[in-house]
Write a structure and sequence with these properties.
The complex is a heterodimer of chains A (112) and B (411). By secondary structure, chain A is an alpha+beta fold. Chain A has 2 helices and 6 strands, in the order βαββββαβ. Chain A has helices at 13-22, 70-81; strands spanning 2-8, 29-35, 42-45, 50-53, 56-65, 89-95. In chain A, a hairpin with a 4-residue loop joins strand 3 and strand 4 (50-53). In chain A, helix 1 (13-22) runs antiparallel to helix 2 (70-81). Chain B is globular, with a radius of gyration of 20 Å. Classes of the chains: A alpha+beta (112), B mainly alpha (411). The interface between A and B is medium-sized, with 11 and 19 residues.
């Protein structure tokens, strides 16, 4: 099992969710996050004048997938979340030791 | 004189309208600070309704409007509102119960003390603010109100005009704000240019709207009658707010974008500037007064933020100090006896002396308020310390001063 953590543009959530469901993954966790990569910040208005914010709002999607599904899922997320401009985000893949479904007590791949 | 029921109804309503401005100001300021200081900022304004509301009836009204002592202060003859009753006063608002006039004036004192708190948000110790506010109300607000508005106040006698509080309320608060912010020092991170982002611009807009609404009581109520003069002041008030809001929006747009925070601020600045002039100028003159007020305050705010190095956090100086100064001088320029027989002709009607009188009143209130605020602030700092500790400031004043969070719970 692997956990896929994808930091994506806020407006890409719908598209990403659609491809995940088409790939057979219906569960995920979404968090509002702030951060920055190589892109600059954002310029906003004070009452008079302006200021820069270095941390831009993004969404973080987390889901756990079977090892053999990892390349397929990465392709799906990249396809749905990409615009080609800076600030499209990143995907991290992390090994997962175990998983438990709280309702039934199922463990491992059965719980994913 | 007998009580006039129409006048009395209007003054009582106006008093309630002005009361609503203080919670409006609390939201206006509250929206502009960081989330961790939202409760604290709202509290700083709201507490004045309670604190000054008590002091006003005990001794504030008597010091401000009581029988004159040398033109500088009222005697304590009306201590505890003794002798202030249901019959009209012989000198003030002679067609409404004296009690109604006293309470109407009390609302002005409350919001003036609340106004300067915008300068010291996110770092002042709550106990120090209370202590300072009692001293400032007693030794700055009451004397200045007496000089300008009491029958024998010395600025009143030389003919300086202030319809609803350009000097007493706005310059007074603006000068105090600058002195106190200077004394207190900047917020942690301010000099390092950490953005101090507004937590809720919609709150700023709700606050500005309540201020605008209440200001009809503030200015049109200051006619102290419910006739034509009140209507005239009502029109100048709305017109100046609209003109200044529009101007500020355009300035922001030229610079970059038309922001909601900008138009809300502009409207308030227009209201500030028309305050001293509201019942002395013809309605159309509210347009230049509002437009110029917005331009002056906008650039004052940019100057304060980029050049002055003083963290006068919510720009009370730029909005109320500068807007109030322009309004007081504009009164000396645009006033017409034809509008208000109790007023005067200004510069455009050929009376340059009125502008000189206005200048004198402006200078006196600036120097007195700034100087006294500095002395009283220094005193409170020595006695109990003005500022919270660095840890309390980092955590935020909501939790460290009040034990509350604006938005509770995990969800």
């Amino acid at each position: 099992m692997k956990k896929i953590e994808a930091i994506i543009r806020e407006e890409k959530l719908g598209a990403v969710r659609k491809v995940l469901e088409e790939s057979g993954y219906y569960g995920m966790t979404v968090t509002e996050v702030s951060g920055h990569g190589r892109e600059g910040g954002l310029t906003l208005q004070w009452r008079a004048g302006e200021y820069r914010v270095d941390y831009l709002p993004k969404l973080k999607i987390e889901l756990v997938v079977l090892d053999e599904d990892v390349p397929r899922m990465i392709n799906a997320i990249v396809g749905a979340a990409r615009t080609g401009a800076m600030g499209d985000g990143k995907i991290f893949v992390i090994p997962v030791e175990n998983a438990v479904r709280i309702r039934t007590g199922d463990e491992g791949v059965n719980a994913v | 004189m007998n009580v006039n029921t129409g006048d009395t109804a209007w003054i009582l309503i106006s008093t309630a309208l002005v009361m609503l401005m203080t919670p409006g100001l609390a939201l206006f300021y509250g929206g502009m600070v960081r989330r961790k200081n939202l409760i604290s900022t709202i509290m700083m304004s709201f507490v004045m309704l309670a604190l000054i509301g008590v002091l006003w009836v005990i001794y504030g009204y008597s010091l401000s409007f009581g029988p004159d002592w040398g033109g500088v202060i009222g005697k304590l003859s009306w201590f505890g509102l003794r002798g202030v009753g249901e019959a009209p006063s012989e000198t003030y608002a002679t067609t409404v119960p004296h009690l109604a006039f006293a309470m109407f004036q009390g609302m002005f004192a409350i919001i003036t003390v609340a106004l300067f708190t915008g300068a010291v948000v996110e770092r002042i110790k709550f106990s120090a603010l209370i202590f300072f506010s009692v001293l400032w109300f007693t030794l700055v607000y009451c004397p200045v109100a007496h000089w300008v508005w009491a029958q024998n106040g010395w600025l009143y006698r030389i003919g300086a005009l202030d319809f609803a509080g350009g000097t007493v309320v706005h310059i007074n608060a603006g000068a105090a704000a600058l002195a106190l912010a200077w004394l207190l020092g900047p917020r942690r991170g301010y000099l390092e240019k950490e953005p101090m982002e507004a937590n809720s611009i919609p709150l700023v807009m709700i606050g500005a709207s309540l201020l605008w609404f209440g200001w009809f009581g503030f200015n049109a109520g200051s006619a102290l009658t419910s006739g034509g003069l009140a209507a005239s002041a009502f029109v100048t008030t709305n017109t100046a707010a609209a003109a200044a809001g529009l101007t500020w929006m355009i300035l922001g747009w030229i610079h970059r974008r038309p922001s909601l925070q900008g138009i809300a601020t502009g409207a308030v600045v227009g209201l500030v500037a028309i305050t001293p002039a509201a019942g002395f100028v013809s309605p159309i003159m509210a347009l230049p007064i509002g437009i110029i007020a917005a331009i002056l305050s906008y650039y004052a705010m940019l100057f304060r933020a980029s050049k002055m190095g003083i963290d006068e956090s919510l720009d009370v100086w730029a909005c109320h100090g500068i807007g109030g100064t322009w309004g007081a001088l504009a009164t000396g320029i645009f006033a017409q006896l034809a509008v208000n027989a109790a007023g005067a002709d200004g510069l455009i009607s050929g009376n340059a002396m009125q502008l000189v009188r206005q200048l004198l009143a402006v200078a006196v209130v600036w120097v007195f308020s700034f100087g006294m605020t500095w002395i009283l602030g220094k005193l409170v700092d020595r006695l109990i310390g003005l500022r919270v500790s660095p840890v309390e400031e980092t955590v935020g004043l909501d939790i460290s001063q009040h034990g509350e969070k604006a938005y509770g719970g995990l969800r």
